[in-house]
Amino acid sequence: MGEQDLRRLALWSAAQACEMAAIAERPWVQAALTAMQEGRPLPPPFDDMEAALARLHDEDFGPVDEGGTELVASIGRADPRESAPNPFDLGPIHRPSFALPTIADAAEPDARDAAMTTLYATAMVFGREVDVLLAAVRTEFGLPPR
Q1: Which pLDDT does position 2 carry in this prediction?
Q2: Residue 78: inside a domain, yes or no?
Q3: In this structure, is residue 52 part of a structural domain?
Q4: Position 82 in a domain
Q5: For a 10 Å CB count at each end of the chain, is N or C smaller?
Q6: Of 104, 90, 116, the residue nearest 33 (C-alpha)
Q7: CA-CA distances (angstroms) from residue 47 to 7, 61, 142?
Q8: How many domains, in total, are found in the chain?
Q9: Which residues have C-beta within 8 Å of that of residue 10, sequence separation ≥ 6?
Q10: What is the mean pLDDT of residues 51-74?
Q11: pTM here?
């Protein structure tokens, strides 16, 4: 892919991640997706990814309690019925937490880095359904079936 297609892949992947994580319609996320598509700088809070993630987590989980205790992750067992391991299936994750950074990833100056980083993170958002994402990439970008 050339630079223009790599940039388009990065932007498309970030939009797919946000859709899959059901955050694309939040007004502040939509504003960032629109700015990204139009080639404008990302609006706050996306100028500080920690602030953007804090806003997301406040919306989804409420503020951190007074003691500062916060659930960051949980670990579960892989499904033993899985015949082949899927490196993108991390089990039960908070998809919005993985999707939100794809917006900043897609805006990285190097188009190749932006495309690869964003597509990889989007694959993690899709997790078990990664084959749906990869089929959509092939269709969207005119790539041959595998």
Answers
A1: 92
A2: no
A3: yes
A4: no
A5: C
A6: 104
A7: 19, 22, 33
A8: 1
A9: 105, 106, 108, 111, 114, 115, 117, 118, 119
A10: 76
A11: 0.84
Q: What is the CA radius of gyration of the chain?
A: 16
Give the amino acid at 54: A
Mean of the per-residue pLDDT values for the chain? 88
Q: Say if 66 falls within a structural domain.
A: no
Q: Tokens 């997706």 belong to which residue?
A: 33
Residue type, 102: T
- Whole-angstrom distance, CA of residue 60 vs CA of residue 56: 6
CB atoms within 10 A of CB 100: 29
Do residues 109 and 117 make contact, with C-beta atoms less than 8 angstroms apart?
no
The parent domain of residue 18 ranges over: 3-59+87-140
Alpha-carbon distances of 58 from 8, 81, 116, rounded to whole Å: 31, 36, 29
Please measure the distance between the N-terminal and C-terminal CA atoms of the chain and give it in whole angstroms.
Answer: 17
Calculate the CA 18 to chain-centre distance: 6
**144 Rama class: left (phi>0) / alpha (psi -120 to 50) / beta:** beta
Question: Per residue in 48-62, is it b (16+ CB within 10 Å) or e — as a string?
Answer: eeeebeebbbeeeee
Average pLDDT over residues 57-86: 65
